[in-house]
Amino acid sequence: MGIRVLIYFLSFIYDLSSASWDDKIIHTLDFIENYVLQVPMFLMTLMRYLTPTLDNMFMDSLRWVDATYADKHKSEDPTKLRPAYYPNLRQYPVKDGSTHSSSTAEALSMFLLRFAKRGAISLAVFAASYIPYVGRLVLPAASFYTFNRAVGLGPAALIFGTGILLPRRYLVIFLQTYFASRSLVRELLEPYFSRVHFTSDQKRRWFRSREGLLFGFGIGFYALLRVPLLGVLIYGIAEASTAYLVTKITDPPPPPERSAGFAAGELEWRNKHEFLKLSLGELDKLSEKPPPYAEADPNPPGGEAEARAAVHGGLWE
Q: Is Hydrolase included in the keywords of this UniProt record (predicted)?
C-alpha cells in the first residue's frame, strides 16, 4: 500500500504516462497480495473472529441437514437411522479449536500469528526464487518437499521436473492454491473443532484420515472464491456446505456429559470405503446408525501406517 501511495504522488512530479516501470511494480504487488500472501482469503477468514455469523451459519445449516434427513426417512425404522448432530453439538461449550480457549482475543492473536508465519515463509520462498543461478530451483524444490510428504516420491519427482519448465508465476499459483485449499478447509471446520476438542496430534491424524476428500472439497470452493465480487457469498455457501460434509465424515456427537473418548474414536474415518463408493445422488443412502464410538475400531490408529510399512518392507526382502 505504501509503495502504491508513493507512486501516486510521484505521478504529480514526473510524467509516468510513457513509463512502464510503475505498471510492472503495481502488477507485481497485486500478484504478491493475491497469490503469495493470499490477502483476500485472509480478510474473509478474519471475519470469523470478529462476528459469530459464520459459526451461526454452520449450526443453522447443521440443524437444517438434520431436519431434512429426518423428513426424508420418516417412513423408515427410526432405530436404524443415525442420531441428529445439532441437538448435542449445540450443547458443547465453544472454544477455539487450536488454543481451546474461550477468549476471542487469544484466538484472534493465534490466527494472526499463523497467517504472519505463513506469509513470511511464502515471501521468503518467493524472494529466494529470484536468487541468480539457484533461484530457478527454489520453487520446484519447495513443490517436491511439499508433495513428497503428501503423495509420495514418484509424483513429487514428476512435479519437480514439471516445475523446472513452468514460469515462476504459474508455479507460485500452483503451490499457493494447494496450501490455500488446505487452510480454507481447516477454517471452515473450525465451528466443529471449537466444540469437539482434539489435541494437536489427534487433529493431525483426523485430517490425515480424510485428506483426499477434504482437499477436493477445499480446492473446489477455493476456485469459486477467486471469482470477483462473489467471493464473500461463496465463502458463506462453503461454510453451510461444511455442515453437510461433517455429517458424512464424522459420527454424531454424544451429549457433552458422555463425550469422554469421543474425539479419540473419530481419528479414523470408519465408513470411508462405503462413502467413496456412492454416487452423488446416493450420498444419503449412508444412513445406517453408526457403531458406538467406544466400540473397538476395525481400523485402529496406526493400522494404515503398519500395513504400509509391511508392504514396503516386503519389497526389499
A: no
